[in-house]
Amino acid sequence: MQGIGEGVRRAFPIVLGYVPVGFAFGVLALKSGIPAWGALAMSLFVFAGSGQLIAVGLIGGGAPLASVVLTTFVVNLRHLLMSAALAPRLRDWGLLRQALFSAEMTDETFAVHVSTLRGEADDPSRAAVFACNVTAHAAWVGGSALGVFCSTLVADVRPLGLDYALAAMFIALLLPQCRSRAHLFAALVAGACSVGFALSGAGRWNVMLATVCAATLVSLLPVGKTSTTCEEMGTPGGEGGAHAD
Question: Contact at 8 Å (CB) between 57 and 181?
Fold first, then answer.
């Protein structure tokens, strides 16, 4: 129970972002011609915020199924990098636990787990991880359901500013991660690269390209090496430095 309570506490900032964005998705899904059960099924089984919103836009615009699948695949390629970062810490987990964990991993839960998951085999640690995932998933489904059932009351979600909730949530999750020079440098480089790639016409590839560039640059420059070395020596300057790799 202690592990479950800790997991719910970790997921609280995510819930604050998922409910309004899920609400926006539910409204947009019904206005795009997707039935209520289809929208709820997407949130329950797909569970991909940006992927679902993009898919809804494409479906509403009459895009062919192949375009929807290919676009969402490219958008979610970043999960390969997130999985690679967490894989060493899940090495001792069974295949079923790994499958359940991966099914509910999102950008936001990754940001939480990368700073808290240490690869321990104790049950409280695993309970906290799954409680965080389930709480976040439930918030997304609940927000989507609320949007579906209130869709007739909302003519346009844009004036409500719900789209900023996701950006605000990412900022809230990012700031606690910037505990060292390497983390802060990586965040600034990734942000600058993402904007640059987007303006240069990279489209949805901008996030993937920016992540690779920032991680590579930080691992090669002295700021990343110094942080990792300090962590291995147990000095405060390297707190969490290994996670920047």
Answer: no
- Cα–Cα distance list, 86 to 11, 121, 131, 172 (Å): 18, 14, 17, 21
DSSP-derived 3-state class of residue 201: coil
Cα separation, 30 vs 41, in Å, equals 13
pTM: 0.69
> Are 231 and 240 within 8 A, CB to CB?
yes
Q: Hey, how many other C-beta atoms are within 10 angstroms of the C-beta on 201?
A: 8
Residue numbers of the chain with a pLDDT score lower than 50: 119, 121-124, 226-245
d(CA 114, CA 108): 10
Q: Tokens standing for 65?
A: 């199924």
Which pLDDT belongs to residue 186? 84
For residue 155, give the DSSP letter: S
Angle at the Cα of 89 (from 234 to 112), degrees rounded to 5?
A: 80
